[in-house]
Every structure is written in C-alpha cells, then in structure tokens.
C-alpha cells in the first residue's frame, strides 16, 4: 500500500510508509495531511446536556450572575478553566477560580468547598472533574452546577443542572477520546452558536486552540479524529506567541523554535502540572489565564522551580517503588508499590515509569495515616478506570475513578493488600498478565546520509504524533559510535556515523535508569544497530536532524 501511495501521490516513500501504517487510504491523503476543523469538529449538540449547559452559562453571563469554576489541578483542568476565564474576560465578565489542594482535599469537588462556593455564587462549573461527585454537588445548595468532564461515568449521575461528558454511560462513546478542555471548547462553540441565534457575537474561539492543544497532548488523549485537528491548529496558534502564560513557560523551558507536540507533552505540560503536584494548586490555571506578561514570567519561573523539586522527589520515590515492585514480582497482571509518605503529586509519574518498564498496568500508593492515595497507569487493551470503579463499588476503596489508561484511588491502609489482589484479578481477566516485553515496532531502515531535515519535515506532516499516533521509528543498522557521554542525572548524548562522512547526533533520555546507558557509554568506535525517532534540533538558528534513541543492539561481525 505504501508503494502504491508513493506512486500515486509522489510523496516521499518514508512519509507514505507512515501514512499506510496509520491506515490512510491513497485518496484520503490530502485531507489527512491538512486536517480541517470545519470538517472534523462534531456538532456539540450530539453530547447530552450540551444545549442546556451552554444556555445556563449564557444566562449567567447576560444577567451578570456570580460564576465559580471548580477545576482539577492538572494541565487539562487548568486549560479548561483558562478557556472559560478567557472567554468570560472577552465578554467583560469574570469568574472565581477554585482548584483543590491535592494533599489536603484530593481530586475533585469536596463538600466544604462546594458548599462555600454555592453560598457566594449562582453558577458553579466543574471542569475535568465532577462526574462521580454526588455528595459534593448535592452540598452546593442554592447554586446551579454544570459539569464539563471526560472521566468515566458511573451508573448514576450527580443531581445537577447538566453533566456534559462523552464518557457518560449513556453516551455512544464516539467522542470518548476528547479531553476535558475539548469538551469545554465544544461548550463554547455551542454558546457562540446560541449567541448568534440571538443576534450577538461571541469571542474568537480559534485563538483559544493553543489551550486545547496543550491539554489534549498533556492529558495523553489519543491523537485521532478531531483531536489531530485541534492539536495541529493549536500549535499554529501557539507559534504566534500571543498568550503571555505560554510565552513565559516556553521561555523558561528554552523552546526556541515553533512548538511541537513533544514540547506540549514534555516541556510545557510537566511545568504546568508541577503546581498541582507539589506547589500551589491553582498556579497552572492562573498562569494560563493571565494577561499580564510580568505576572506570567514570575509564575512560569516558580513553576520551573517546582518542576525541578518534583523531579528530585520523583527520583527518590521511583527508586523505592521499583525495588518494592521487583521484590513482589514484575510478571504479575498488576505491578504495584506502596510507601510511607510518598508524595501524592508524583505517584502517577512513578506509576507511568513502572508501566513502561514492565508493560503491565501499574499502581503506586503514598501512605499517610490510615489512608493511602494512589495513581495508576494502564497498557493498551486493559481498562483500568472501569476496574478501579468496580473496586470502589465493592467497598475495597474509599473512592476511585478515571478512564481506560489512567485512574486515581484512595484506600484504607488495612485494605491495600486486599484491594491490590482483587484489582490484579480483575485486570488478569482482561489479559493484563499475558503481555510480554513491549515490542519495539520499526517502520523502516535508514542510513545516516538519508536522514535529512527535509525528510523529517515531510514525515512530520503526518503528525502531530503522540498517544495512539506514535511517530515512526527507524533503525540505523551497523553504525559506528563516535562519541557517547552522560548528561544530567540519567541521560545519554552520542554521535554516530556510517563511515562515509554522514554523522547524526542522538539523545537518550533516562538511559541510565535502565541498561542502555551503561551499555553505550564509553563505547567510542563500537558498532551498534540504533533505533529511535527522528526530530529536528534547532540551535543557534541552525537546524539538524537528531535521533531520539530508544533501543540499541551491538552489531556482531559477519
């Protein structure tokens, strides 16, 4: 199919291989390479409660009612809140922002906070949370509550004015891949539509797609369907550098080129998240919504500091969790660890590392007093969120929820072992224990001389790459390492060539957390097969190809 596409379209063979792997038919190539929101954006009204939610929102705006936004403390929650604050500001309105403290209050609405907000406000909008918050929403007496969320819904919904969520049990699931910020964006699309029907004009929504793109990538939403278009267009908006918070964040993250999905997921996202993990919970949302460049710079620098602190805490927890999980066994259907005082803000990241290391669903729990707060990450084909919800329904968890690939939980200390044993059993029924080591799928073979900037630019037209849309991975066979050096705490930089003059630089992040770093360091002159993803590295105004190294095997002579 790739060869036929190459002949029909005259596109580079490497790009055609990527498109064929994505299942793109030759006659659909043009539309895939230039995804248009007007073609892919769904009608917001196909989501239940959408018209009702937008109408109530507009009524509050028109009547100058007091509006509160209750947001989750991660990137998706912060971006969702910033979208609403930005829209309201352009309409000459404002809202109270409330983000719960991860340690003191935990995830989602809680009864004291909701009761206090209801006392002083007419409308409370819960973003990226609320679908399972029956009691807290019931405590919001005297105020209307609208939920804009994407987390897995239960059998019943909280008693409130509207719950807009593509993952409600009575939804079709066609839009289950949307993050919360995309749901908020659709609500604003519907609000603008209703305003036009009343002869009024709403704010420019296209200019807000930078926030939707950031949330989509950072929340690891699959980059399929409309999500591709949202991220592609959002990156173009971000490149204009018009949002002070993202400009400041890009500067402290030393992004000196047009942003890519990698920058959203690995440079900007972790810094926005750092406030919710170990610092001021609302710092990320405030940064994303501020219009003051000086204020934005100060908040971005603080988030950068918190992110460095987060890495130190994470490294300590990760080492302890890996040791504990290894002692328990890494081939079980569930890999898990629990430790005294492990910071709730990093357990999710450590769970991700365990999942990547073992190709198993992973749970990491921080114990404090009589309870433990944990976070989990899953592998493809295993629905962790549904299993966590079942545990909560069975009384083995104090609370828990999430979606297929990620979940959170609170568990009594004396039920940790029982709950994890039961979860392991539920995941085993989904085949979690059947997976071997994760396969490293290769898309083709390249020689160093062929890896040119224009080729990488062509391949990137098939992006953005991320969850459910991995960038193509190539192998460079039998190349010679000319330079290898450890950088930072655990990364490896190296250069390699084919002996014919072509040379490529490579970076392997976290190489010394596994066997790759020791295997490749101080091996100048040795020959290896190297596999990874190609990217363009910009430095000092010049562009060069860089390999993001993922695996290596020593080339044996003959």
Automatic annotation (TrEMBL):
Name the NCBIfam families for this protein: recJ (TIGR00644)
| UniProt source species | Thalassovita gelatinovora
Gene name, per UniProt, is: recJ
**What family is it from?**
Belongs to the RecJ family.
Q: State the UniProt keywords alphabetically.
A: Coiled coil, Exonuclease, Hydrolase, Nuclease
Q: Which residues form the DDH domain?
A: 66-216
Q: Where is the RecJ OB domain?
A: 443-551
Q: Name one GO molecular function term.
A: 5'-3' exonuclease activity
Q: What is this protein called?
A: Single-stranded-DNA-specific exonuclease RecJ
Recorded hits in Pfam families, A to Z, give: DHH (PF01368), DHHA1 (PF02272), RecJ_OB (PF17768)
GO terms of biological process kind? DNA recombination; DNA repair
Matching entries from InterPro entries are given as: DDH_dom, DHH_sf, DHHA1_dom, RecJ, RecJ_OB, SSDNA_exonuclease_RecJ
Question: Where is the DHHA1 domain positioned along the sequence?
Answer: 336-427
**Stretches assigned to coiled coil:** 296-326
